[in-house]
Amino acid sequence: MQFREIKIGRHTLKYPIIQGGMGVGISWSQLAGAVSLAGALGVISAIGTGYYHSRAFVAKQQFGRPAEAEQFYNRKAVFEIFKDARKICGDKPLGANILYAINDYPRVFRDCCEAGADIIITGAGLPMNMPEYAADFPNVALVPIVSSPKALRLIAKRWEQRYKRIPDAIVLEGPLSGGHQGFTYEQCLDESYRLENLIKPVVLEAKSISDNIPVFAAGGIWTRDDIVRFMELGASGAQIGTRFIGTYECDVPQTFKDLLIGCKEGDIELLHSPVGYPARGIRTNLVNLIDKRQGPIVRCVSNCVIPCKRGVKAKSVGYCIADRLGDAAEGNLETGLFFSGSNGYRIDRLISVNDLIKKLVYGEDS
Questions:
Q1: What's the predicted TM-score (pTM) here?
Q2: Does one domain contain both 213 and 131?
Q3: Interval 54-79: pLDDT, tens
Q4: How many domains are contained in the chain?
Q5: 243-271 burial, b if ≥16 CB within 10 A, otherwise e?
Q6: Pick from 314, 318, 321: which is nearest to 338 by CA?
Q7: Residue 289 CB neighbours (<10 A)
Q8: How far apart are CA 116 and CA 79, in angstroms?
Q9: Are residues 232 and 262 in the same domain?
């Protein structure tokens, strides 16, 4: 199968591949810029941008953390990240990933559009009013992440009725992805919720809305053969996240990359999260401490997500996700939380983004 260019709204990708948005600090300017330059869609994570360049743009800190959502989702840093990415990829399509469950979603959405995002991808909840925030940005394509045809149906119905708009593309994310899942813990382990079983119903639902909504399969996709398999099941392309951590250009510190290279399959597991969704990450010293209720003190400094209720959920699960992801972004192996998809253990060395794109497009021997 030959991969062809694909349109998302008014934007054309050379290859039908989206690099998954990974925060805090995993997919920022260097990774996203390199991916877009190589012909896929580079995606900047809008999560935790206050940590960009060691919190250089943060106006207010407390306990060494960006204080409040305004600083955690830092506007100045967003503009700097996009500016730095554009130095790499020029005017090629560049995306942003914004979790719907965050505090300040409307403001962060606008910040990303004003900073130069061509495509906005949103998951972690049903973004029922996403088009409302895009009213002043008609060229920005809108891509919700869903986990079922029902979710897509609800989103599309609301968008059509209220905003006279439909999604420009869909990301269908199965339960093998890294970070937060759109499933319960039980569903993540249930074979009936495998991506292979979800793809056809979601593709059919998308076609019932329009013939021009590409569906990108995500979660556990690793090779060209995986992409082809899901395209044969009806997908238009694929979103891949964790494998891009194993590139020289990925924005995370070398300690994060070394941790992933050294981990085994059994080290990657589902974790409880203050966000209210199961999350997949690497078992580290932090996770062991949390299990024994000996983790770092929980202070709600950044007020990052709505479901946490200003630290209530964080205290119940034993850690603050903003602080722990922030530590991971700064390379702290002792107190950092390191997300990974189920196949992260397969990374055994670093390669360039360009070489990875070649492997995904032409095969592992390319």
A1: 0.96
A2: yes
A3: 999 999 999 999 999 999 999 999 99
A4: 2
A5: bbbbbbbbbbbeebbebbbebeeebbebb
A6: 321
A7: 16
A8: 8
A9: no
